[in-house]
Automatic annotation (TrEMBL):
It comes from Puniceibacterium antarcticum. It holds the Pfam family LptE. GO terms for biological process: Gram-negative-bacterium-type cell outer membrane assembly. GO terms for cellular component: outer membrane. InterPro entries: LPS_assembly_LptE (IPR007485). This is LPS-assembly lipoprotein.
Amino acid sequence: MLLYNRRTFLLGAGALGLLAACGFSPVYGPGGGGDMLLGEIALDAPDTREGYLLTQRLEERLGRGLGGRYALSYATRVTSEGLGTTSAGSTTRYQLIGTVEYTLKDAATGAVLSTRDTSAFAGYSATGSNVATLAARRDTMERLMVILADQMVDQLLLWATGQAAQ
């Protein structure tokens, strides 16, 4: 038993050494670039429920950037697709496919710094009750916007890390 724990420790220490050798650095660590975005991105005011959910998650992750150095504009698009059907022809499963196209700009000059897009999907089952189906759709929309916002944050952090390295 002691030998197994020792092996695990030695393998873990070796893996850390390899990460240090490859130039790995945490995004929020010194020189990582993550700090340059926290509280510095002013988001467009949402005009749809999807936009509100997306903005809410972005502000959770990046902070509210009123008067920040950057401005982020975005456009969401969500489509619904029926997946499963019964022998009677009614749809039993739906998939929401969401896409967000966004542009990060310098707030002072308006210069475009990065333009990207991201997409994801989430599904829900249609039940016998319309109320339950609508609640499932609403919950799925919330999950989809969280997924899309998290992907946006990941892409923005990678961009910021590249900028910090320059």
